[in-house]
Amino acid sequence: MSPQQIAESFGITFTEQTPGYLNLCIRSGSQLLTSGHVSDLKGKLGADVQTDEGYKAARNCAEKILNSVWNSHGTLDGLRVIKVLGCVNSTLDFTDQHLVINGCSDLLHQIFGKEGNGFHARSALGFAQLPTGAAVEVEAIFEIL
C-alpha cells in the first residue's frame, strides 16, 4: 500500500483547509515545511498529563500535519520525512519528552516506513508553555521525491 492508502486505512481523514493567518504547510523547492501543529489535549506533562496521554497527543499532531501536507501536496505519496521537531509542555523535572514525541514518529514510521522514507531526524524538547495550553506541538519537514 502507498503512504496515502496506509494513512487512510488508519482512519486518518483528509479535509480541505481554509487559509488562515499563517501557512500551515509551505513548499520551498523540493521540501514541504509545516508550521507547528498543536494537540487537542491541553495540559502539562509531569503534572496533569501522563506520558501515554502525551504520546497520543503527539500522534494527534502528526495527523494534523499530514492533513496540512495533503492540502499542500495533494497526496502523501512521493514524500520522505526529513525532520520532526517535537515540543512538549512539561514541568522542570519531566524528562521523557522523547517518549511523548514517539507518538508522532511511530505514526510516520508506520505510514512511510521506518527503514525507508519515514526514517527521520528528530528533536524532542521540553517547554514551559505552549500556545493555547496545548500539551504538545510538532512541526515537520518533508522532501518531495
Describe the protein in words.
The protein is an alpha+beta fold and 145 residues long. It has one domain (3-9, 31-144): 60s Ribosomal Protein L30, Chain: A (2-Layer Sandwich), CATH 3.30.1330.40. It is 35% helix and 26% strand. It has helices at 3-9, 51-73, 97-117; strands at residues 25-28, 31-34, 37-38, 79-89, 121-127, 136-144. Strands 1, 2, 3, 4, 5 and 6 form a six-stranded mixed sheet that branches. Strand 4 (79-89), helix 3 (97-117) and strand 5 form a beta-alpha-beta unit. Helix 2 packs across helix 3 (97-117). The longest helix is centred in the middle third of the chain and has 23 residues, at 51-73. The mean pLDDT is 97.
Topology summary:
Layout: H1 3-9, E1 25-28, E2 31-34, E3 37-38, H2 51-73, E4 79-89, H3 97-117, E5 121-127, E6 136-144
Parallel strand pairs: 4-5
Antiparallel strand pairs: 1-2, 2-6, 3-6, 4-6
- The share of residues in helices is 25-40%
What order do the SSEs take from the amino end to the carboxyl end, as H and E? HEEEHEHEE
Q: Which fold name is given in CATH as the topology?
A: 60s Ribosomal Protein L30, Chain: A
State the CATH architecture: 2-Layer Sandwich
Which terms summarize this structure?
globular, 6 strands, 60s Ribosomal Protein L30, Chain: A, 3 helices, 145 residues, alpha+beta
